[in-house]
Write a structure and sequence with these properties.
single chain, alpha/beta, Spore Coat Polysaccharide Biosynthesis Protein SpsA, Chain A, 2 domains, two-stranded antiparallel sheet, 15 helices, 11 strands, 17% strand, globular
Length: 385
């Protein structure tokens, strides 16, 4: 009975991996690298909005990498989201350094808003341009990043564009975990569908979300996603559902962000949006755990079975897993595809992160993000899902 069950599961996962590999092979061809784009030196005013809470370590180098962009028609709205470190002072110093920089200091958070979402919304209220870039306070930019992004945006007459940055990581297991996260993100979210006008699937990445002011207002601004920890994904999804023109690109040598300094901090960081991504449903949590374990852990061990049919099915599963993993790492990261050999262990780490995030959300009665607690009842409100 167990042999039959295992063979059935391996057969099912094999069909999934074959389909996912073919889908990715076609889909990745639709993702243009911004590095190959002809940049613009002049063009429409770009309003860059950066929300930051206790980012004294990152805010200055990030903004300084933006101030030297070859695209000059830019203004910055830096929003200090109730920081209790030197973030606010550093923002003011940057404002004194360059007259294109504006600073907003927030001291309170209204009920019914996540801090970051409210800060971005308040930043939007101050924009002068008709092109808005939402980016994070720890993102580093190549000097030609804005020029190439605006060039691509205007050439394709887009309403929204997101760009996948290089997620840098130093410790080995953090690299492996980041690679696995992007692997799962790719086959689960299928980001290339953003470039298919017939698809309603949209995508957004917090490091780089460029959108027209008209499109942003049409989807209801961040007021429509005010309680979503995954606001970047939600923004992209709303753009696509509204029938607006969206593209996803890659920018691995133009935009870089250190996802987290350590594996421990990565697991802590995922607390805020893992359960949100599963719609706060235990059924989705269980389905995800079972799916990841059966499809990405079991084949690595069942290949040592005494049953030849199970060995063959496991081997073919691993071949397609390796093909898909290699495609993802080459297109979405600058890591070695050889990290595939620790995939079952990073899959188990990911399962642990799902269980941990879900448990802590229930135990705390909500999530704690940047020092502020948001209750589960608030997060689960129908209007916010």
């Amino acid at each position: 009975m167990l042999t039959l069950l295992l063979m059935t599961l391996l057969s099912m996962t094999l069909i999934i991996w074959i389909a996912a590999t073919i889908d990715a092979a076609i889909g990745f061809k639709r993702l243009d690298p911004l590095e190959k784009v002809q940049g613009m030196e002049t063009g429409p005013l770009l309003s860059v909005i950066v929300a930051a809470r206790n980012e004294e370590e990152h805010i200055q180098p990030s903004i300084q990498s933006q101030l030297v962009q070859s695209y000059k028609n830019v203004e910055w709205i830096l929003v200090n989201d109730r920081s209790d470190d030197a973030t606010g002072k550093m923002m003011d110093d940057l404002k004194n350094l360059d007259p294109r920089v504006n600073v907003i200091h927030l001291h309170t958070l209204p009920e019914g808003w996540l801090g970051k979402n409210y800060a971005l919304y308040k930043g939007y209220k101050q924009v002068s341009g008709k092109r808005i870039l939402f980016t994070d306070a720890d993102v580093m930019y190549h000097p030609d990043a804005f020029a190439k992004a605006v060039g691509y945006f205007e050439k394709h007459q887009l309403d929204h564009m997101t760009a996948a940055p290089n997620l840098s990581a130093r410790p080995f297991w953090l690299k492996a975990f980041v690679a696995f996260f992007l692997f799962g993100f790719s086959y689960y979210k299928r980001p290339w569908l953003a470039n298919n006008p017939r698809s309603k699937t949209g995508i957004g990445i917090g490091a780089f979300n460029m959108i027209t002011k008209h499109a942003y207002e049409k989807i209801g601004t961040h007021a429509e996603i005010r309680m979503r920890p995954d606001d970047d994904l939600q923004l992209g999804g709303k753009v696509k559902k509204a029938g607006l023109k969206q593209r996803m690109t890659t920018a691995l040598t133009l935009i870089e962000v250190e996802w987290y300094p350590s594996l421990k901090e990565a697991l802590a960081g995922l607390e805020k949006n893992t359960f949100a991504g599963l719609h706060y449903r235990i059924s989705m949590v269980l389905f995800s755990i079972l799916g990841v374990f059966v499809s990405q852990v079991v084949p690595f061990f069942s290949i040592f079975s005494n049953n030849k049919a199970i060995v063959l099915l496991s081997a073919i599963n691993l071949i397609f897993l390796a093909l898909l993993y290699t495609m993802v790492t080459k297109k979405m990261t600058r890591f070695s595809p050889l990290l595939f050999f620790v995939l079952p262990f990073t899959a188990l780490l990911f399962i642990f992160s799902i269980i941990r995030a879900s448990y802590l959300t229930f135990k705390r009665g909500g999530i704690i993000w940047r020092g502020t607690k948001y209750t589960l009842s608030e997060l689960r409100k129908k209007d916010n899902l």
